[in-house]
Write a structure and sequence with these properties.
It contains 16 helices and no strands. By secondary structure, it is an all-alpha fold. It has one domain. Helix 6 crosses helix 7 and helix 11 packs antiparallel against helix 12.
């Protein structure tokens, strides 16, 4: 992807802003259609706006991790992710995924699940809520592996919290240490649960771990095959699949948590879809402007946020933790990492 440093912030956010206008207009129209009052229209409009803000705050780290992977991909695969990938993120995770949960949990057909979402939102929301434990265990395990994969790396030579990260990176030579750590955490945490919930948590965590490993193996195999065919095919289909599963893991918590604000699947899809477009815009900006290279600790902040999010997802199987806290916590870590990067740049320049 060609560098475009002259591009303004507004230019990067153009499609996100357009999506915001269209999405909020659709939300207002849906509110009027369902409640036939100005108050009802404004209520749905407000919920869509709040959901979009929550999705953006929860996805700062997602955009940074996406950019970290995208910078090593060819322009062709970058564009494919930013077009096909965003369609999968918006429609797949925000609409199809919640429907699929109900299809599996309630043992009904897709059309019945769609009708339930439209005519029985309370029942639909109840099923989604009941499915939160396995989703949190699966997504939390996957994200924990993603975060540890960044820190447990022998080649990692830039450390933000040096005394901690330098020690962690030394253990990268121990094969399977991340897997052993995550399994230990999952098994210890499962002891806080009882009965069927304990077994469900463990099984879901194992599936999350297996999914991460399969994506890594499949990604390496696919990309290796492409390199054989063409040396320029770096970071192709395998990286694309990795990013899609990663986005799905980030989306789990937001989709489930959104039902606390609205039980209407279509309102949730609009609000979260708007937020997903801002993630796309932020990802493009980070890649094209080379922001990750300019601010050396920004990635560290994102991966620490992912690690904390994974632990929060585990704890959410026990207690409800508001998404606002999760989002602000992640954004706060990234903000501190950005501030540390700016201070480091100034010290290097000899200005302080």
């Amino acid at each position: 992807m060609a560098m475009a440093p002259q591009k303004s912030m507004l230019a990067y956010l153009k499609w996100a802003i357009i999506s915001t206008v269209i999405g909020l207009a659709l939300g207002a129209a849906l509110g009027w259609q369902t409640e036939h009052t100005v108050a009802g229209m404004l209520k749905v409009f407000f919920i869509c706006a709040v959901l979009a803000v929550l999705e953006i705050s929860l996805s700062f780290d997602n955009a940074i991790v996406n950019a970290n992977k995208l910078k090593d991909m060819t322009p062709v695969w970058q564009q494919r992710f930013l077009t096909w990938g965003i369609l999968i993120a918006v429609f797949g995770m925000r609409i199809i995924f919640p429907l699929l949960i109900v299809v599996i949990a309630a043992n009904v057909g897709p059309w019945t699940a769609m009708v339930m979402a439209a005519s029985q939102p309370e029942e639909y929301a109840r099923i989604m809520h009941d499915a939160h434990l396995p989703i949190a265990a699966f997504g939390g395990t996957f994200l924990m592996m993603v975060a540890l994969g960044y820190f447990v790396d022998e080649e990692k030579d830039i450390h933000w919290i040096h005394w901690l990260e330098s020690r962690i990176s030394r253990y990268a030579s121990v094969k399977g240490i991340e897997i052993a750590f995550v399994l230990t955490v999952a098994l210890l945490f499962s002891r806080l649960l009882e009965g069927a919930d304990r077994d469900l948590f463990v099984y879901s965590a194992i599936y999350g771990l297996l999914t991460f490993l399969l994506v890594e193996v499949l990604g390496g195999f696919l990309d290796k095959s492409q390199e054989t065919a063409s040396a320029a095919a770096k970071g192709g289909l395998g990286a694309f699949l990795y990013l899609e599963v990663l986005d799905a893991s980030f989306s789990f918590d937001g989709v489930i948590g959104a039902f606390a604000l609205s039980q209407n699947l279509f309102v949730i899809a609009i609000g979260l879809g708007i937020g997903a477009m801002y993630v796309r815009s932020m990802t493009i900006m980070l890649v094209e402007k080379g922001t990750l290279a300019e601010y050396r600790f920004l990635e560290h902040g994102a991966f620490y946020a992912i690690l904390i999010l994974s632990v929060i997802m585990y704890f959410q199987t026990l207690v409800h933790i508001p998404e606002v806290i999760t989002g602000l916590g992640g954004a706060g870590l990234i903000g501190i990492a950005l501030w540390s990067s700016i201070r480091w740049n100034r010290r290097e320049a000899g200005t302080i």
